[in-house]
Every structure is written in C-alpha cells, then in structure tokens.
C-alpha cells in the first residue's frame, strides 16, 4: 500500500481542495483521509505501507485527455504510442482517448484491434481508442458502429472532416442512438472554412491571411443540434471556440438534449494576435479566436457550459510546419503542456483547481463511461502529484513527443508534475 501524506487533495466531485492523505491498495484508492485524523499516524507506522511525503504538493486524479492524435498507423515518424505515452505520463495524463484520423483511418474492427495491441504493448498510460464515424472519414458510408463498439471503440468521430451530407449524418446519429454510442463532431462549416488559416477581422486582413468568420462554427453547430434533436443521439462537440456558439449550446441543454462540448487548451490560453509573426506552431484548426472569444470560453468552462478541456494533441513534423503560414499543417502538441497551460487559468483567478479538474478529468471520464477522474474510495489509483507554482521556461527540445510543434516554446510557465501513477504503478517521477 502507498500513503500519499500531507498533500492538498483535489476532489472534482465534491468541488474541494483540502489537506489530507490518500491510501492506495494495488490499483485502487482505499481511503481518503482528512488532515488531523489519527489514522494517518497509524498508517505511517505500518511496515506494509510505503509513505510518500507530499508536503507543499497537490494530489489529483490523473487527467483524462479526450482527443489525442497518435500517428499509428501510418505516420509513426510524427508520434508513436511509446513516445506519446511517455509524454502523457510526464504531463500527468493517465488516460489518452485517441483519435481515428490515422492512415488508414480506424474504421474497421481489425484496425482498431491493431491499435489496441500497439497501445497495450507500448504506452505506459491507459489508451482508450475512438473509431471513425464513416468509412475512411469520407462522409459517405457509415462504419459498422456495433462491431466497432464491441471491439472497444469509446466514441465515433470523423475528427476535422465534417460529414456534410445531413442525411448521412442523421443516419449515423440514429444508429448510434440505438446502440447508445457517443458521436463526437467538429462544428465547422467546411465550405466557409476551406483554405483559411485565421479568424476573420481587421487583424487577419492586415496580415493578408485567408480567414473565416466564427459564424462557420455557429452554423455547423446549429445544424448538428437540429439533427440531434431529431435523432435523440448522444453528441459531443470536440471544440467550441466562439462566443457566438454558446447560445446554441445553452438552448440544446435547456431542451434536454444529451449534448456536451469541449475545447482545446490552446484556444483557452492564446488568441489571434499570437499568429502575428506568422509562426506556424500557432496555426490551429479552428484558428485562434479574438481575445473576447477566449475570455468567453474561459467563463464557459468555469460556469460548466463547456464540459471538457483537452490538449487536442496534434503532432506535425518539421517539414510540414516549416512552410509559409497558409501552406503549413495545422495543429500543436499538448500532452506535456496541457497542465501548466491550464494552470494559467487558475493563477489568473479565472477558476479554482477543483473546477479545472472537473473539466480535465471528471467530465471526460463520465462522458465516456470510464471509472477514472475521481479521488474517492474504490476509484482507480490513477493519480498525479504536482507543484502548481513551480516555475520553468518551456523548451520544446526537452519534450518527449517525437514532434516538437508547441506554441509554448520559450514561454514562462508554472506547474511541474512530480509523479504520475496509473493503476497504482508509478510511471513518471
């Protein structure tokens, strides 16, 4: 047994952050003990208990990162399960929920089983794979949702390839509803978004960048909400990044639709001005938004309207990023920077640690029906021990990911992971 002694315990279920101790037994949490309890002193004296002094540190459930791209199969030179797992452990992520936008796409039970085998053999953290919603993510023919679900698919998504045919998407939603499967969509109107790399406005115009209005997100979300209302399917928007989309999300919730939404950490901590020097590490999909939109998204996370905060980890090699801004590939890595970037919101007073952990761990676990995300008796011993105030300067050369395309290179950050445990086994620190 392991006793985490003297930590600040983050309980996202109860919404508390208080000092105490936590005891694990094998792969589960055995007890959460408040500070001052005589049981702590008794446990310290037991020979079968290994005590870890956590004075000055914070203990929380491991992060459940919904939407990680691991480039196996097809582009292993960008990221493998081995390197992604190591990066996740260093970042306090104990569960990676991986995307199916691989080459080939994860659209058959055979490919899904291959991915599961590689993940089990190579990754040091838990890996929960998602599957494509349509064949080859082409938006024309629905995958075998039932067979893929039986093979272990946690959800179904075509990622950033929007299913433009509403009849096909409705058929997918209806079939998923019959099987109680979760559909994850990328709310962006592809016609308006195609070929763009910035958010429309004076700033993009001055820099001569092709841009798209945030209304492209709102329009796609409105369509999706209508189809969800028609089919009563379970739906999750992978990224809501514009304040114009929030009323549609609120309306769907009021109408009783089973709808949740997420946002990537980069859209919570960066804005459109960050692309001013044409640095392609800041080229994301959807593009970075205005500061007003960013602040509205932070408030939506703090208020619970946006449920999930994730890394949207998207590794790209040097060749695909060292191009003119318009031609460069979109995306940024985020497994190791998710925690310190998210802690910026706490240090700025926008939210407290329990609220942040609700979005980082509890909500994604609940949405996918996973047992993690909790600091409670009987929960998995998936834990992160960290110092939320430890300062450092991010150096992308030190990242464990194969790809180094982080927009935080050279940034001053706070928050270092001291240890990560998966199923009671220490995988970092």
UniProtKB/TrEMBL annotation:
<protein>
    <submittedName>
        <fullName>Dihydroorotase, multifunctional complex type</fullName>
    </submittedName>
</protein>
<keyword id="KW-0665">Pyrimidine biosynthesis</keyword>
<dbReference type="GO" id="GO:0046872">
    <property type="term" value="F:metal ion binding"/>
</dbReference>
<dbReference type="GO" id="GO:0004151">
    <property type="term" value="F:dihydroorotase activity"/>
</dbReference>
<dbReference type="InterPro" id="IPR011059">
    <property type="entry name" value="Metal-dep_hydrolase_composite"/>
</dbReference>
<dbReference type="GO" id="GO:0005737">
    <property type="term" value="C:cytoplasm"/>
</dbReference>
<dbReference type="InterPro" id="IPR024403">
    <property type="entry name" value="DHOase_cat"/>
</dbReference>
<feature type="domain" description="Amidohydrolase 3">
    <location>
        <begin position="357"/>
        <end position="428"/>
    </location>
</feature>
<dbReference type="InterPro" id="IPR004722">
    <property type="entry name" value="DHOase"/>
</dbReference>
<keyword id="KW-0862">Zinc</keyword>
<dbReference type="GO" id="GO:0004038">
    <property type="term" value="F:allantoinase activity"/>
</dbReference>
<dbReference type="GO" id="GO:0006145">
    <property type="term" value="P:purine nucleobase catabolic process"/>
</dbReference>
<dbReference type="InterPro" id="IPR013108">
    <property type="entry name" value="Amidohydro_3"/>
</dbReference>
<feature type="domain" description="Dihydroorotase catalytic">
    <location>
        <begin position="59"/>
        <end position="242"/>
    </location>
</feature>
<dbReference type="InterPro" id="IPR032466">
    <property type="entry name" value="Metal_Hydrolase"/>
</dbReference>
<dbReference type="GO" id="GO:0006221">
    <property type="term" value="P:pyrimidine nucleotide biosynthetic process"/>
</dbReference>
<dbReference type="Pfam" id="PF07969">
    <property type="entry name" value="Amidohydro_3"/>
</dbReference>
<dbReference type="Pfam" id="PF12890">
    <property type="entry name" value="DHOase"/>
</dbReference>
<dbReference type="InterPro" id="IPR050138">
    <property type="entry name" value="DHOase/Allantoinase_Hydrolase"/>
</dbReference>
């Amino acid at each position: 047994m392991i006793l985490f002694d003297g930590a600040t315990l983050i309980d996202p279920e109860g919404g508390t952050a208080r000092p105490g101790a936590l005891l694990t037994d094998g792969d589960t949490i055995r007890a959460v003990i408040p500070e001052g309890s005589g049981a702590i002193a008794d446990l310290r004296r037991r020979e079968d208990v290994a005590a870890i002094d956590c004075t000055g540190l914070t203990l929380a459930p491991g992060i459940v990162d919904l939407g990680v791209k691991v480039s196996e199969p097809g582009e292993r030179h960008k990221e493998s399960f081995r390197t992604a797992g190591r990066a996740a452990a260093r970042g306090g992520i104990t569960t990676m929920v991986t995307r199916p936008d691989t080459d080939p796409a994860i659209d058959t039970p055979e490919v899904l089983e291959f991915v599961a085998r590689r993940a089990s053999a190579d990754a040091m953290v838990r890996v929960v794979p998602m599957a494509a919603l349509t064949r080859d993510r082409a938006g024309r023919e629905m995958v075998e949702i039932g067979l893929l679900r039986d093979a272990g698919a946690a959800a179904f998504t075509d990622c950033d390839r929007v299913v433009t045919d509403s009849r096909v998407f409705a058929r997918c939603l209806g079939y998923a509803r019959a099987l109680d499967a979760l559909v994850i969509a990328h709310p962006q109107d592809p016609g308006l978004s195609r070929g763009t790399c910035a958010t429309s406005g004076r700033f993009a115009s001055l820099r001569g960048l092709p841009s798209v209005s945030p209304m492209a997100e709102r329009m796609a979300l409105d369509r999706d909400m209508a189809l969800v209302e028609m089919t009563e399917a379970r739906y999750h928007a992978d990224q809501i990044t514009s304040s114009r989309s929030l009323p549609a999300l609120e309306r769907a919730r009021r109408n009783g639709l089973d709808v949740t939404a997420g946002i990537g950490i980069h859209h919570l901590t960066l804005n459109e001005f960050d692309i001013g020097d044409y640095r392609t590490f800041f080229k994301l999909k959807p593009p970075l938004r205005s500061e007003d939109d960013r602040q509205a998204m932070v408030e939506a996370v703090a208020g619970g309207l946006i449920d999930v905060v994730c890394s949207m980890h998207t590794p790209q090699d040097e060749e695909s990023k060292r191009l003119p801004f318009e031609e460069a590939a979109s995306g940024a890595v985020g497994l190791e920077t998710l925690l310190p970037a998210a802690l910026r919101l706490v240090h700025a007073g926008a939210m407290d640690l329990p609220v942040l952990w609700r979005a980082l761990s509890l909500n994604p676990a609940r949405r996918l029906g996973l047992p993690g995300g909790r600091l409670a008796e009987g929960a998995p011993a998936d834990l992160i021990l960290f110092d939320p105030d430890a300062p450092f300067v991010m150096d992308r050369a030190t990242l464990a990911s194969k790809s180094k395309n982080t927009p935080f290179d050279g940034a001053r950050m706070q928050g270092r992971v001291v240890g990560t445990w998966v199923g009671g086994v220490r995988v970092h620190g």
